[in-house]
Amino acid sequence: MELYFLSVGYGEAIVLIDGAHCLVMDGGPGSSDEAYDQPGTIRLADFLHQKEVQKIDCMICTHLHNDHLSGLVETAEQFPIGAFWVNCWPQASAARAIAAALPACPDDLSLRLFTTGLQHWERLRTVLEERGVPVCERAATASFEELWPGCGIRLFGMNQAQIASRRAEFEAFCRMEDPAAQRDAMRAFDKVENTCSLACCLEYGDWRAFLTGDLCSGWDERCAAPDFPRAQVLKLTHHGQRDGMPQSLVDACDPQVFLMCADKARTFISACDEVQARAAQFLTARSRTAHVYTTGLLAQHFGPQNEQPPCALCCVAEEPTRCIPYYAKEV
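Request: output the structure for the sequence above.
Response:
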């Protein structure tokens, strides 16, 4: 079993490969995004072709933000998908909301990113429908369920009532007729989307990896549960920004390896110095090697190969966890 964290610029894309089985969690920004101009980045679909993946058993979209959702579109067009899981899947068209937002986008970065995500979401809905991929809104689960023999997953995030409320809020702003009010409602929805993100823990025998999406709130209560899983690998939430390392989550997981999905420029103060230092101090205090990685900064740890920087980190399910770089190859 190999768990890959791809360098997709400011964004997130994670791939689990286990023999003929494959799980994809988020897809980074869209394939034409300028993020991929950075050396060492790779598009999700290109990576899957390089790894000779034939089918995606399960594709997960943690939440409806551009840097997590948009790269899934091209991937869904190119690979068969067994099931698609998402935090919330409204049925109303966002076309009117997108049209209302576009005039304000040049001067509003947050609204522009959300609107870009919605444009890709509209396209992704069409692709999944045309290909007959079953879509399931997933709520938090109380225990692990089998993805395939030998591999389990437990979900963290909203409950069913919260999903229904979130869906209703989305569909309400889609139906609005006043553009200014519509933009304000979109901003309000977008502002708390990270708190509605899916997160999960993957289990492979006695080995676990905790993948948090952008879920950066509610961890004190979750981690207080007696059955909260420990994990050898912890991907910090929200790209390692200052709100992305809840101490309760770190203490409960007690990881050997920290991961942050951020670009080399550490856009929006991602993979911030404070978080990197806290992660290193946590491992050092437990007499562990300071394995703290950022997807856009892998060259600092591993160096280039054939003058090319690594474009992904592979965490192998061993004890202790083995982390090795992945370098792009021609296909």
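Residues 158 and 196 are 6 Å apart (CA to CA).
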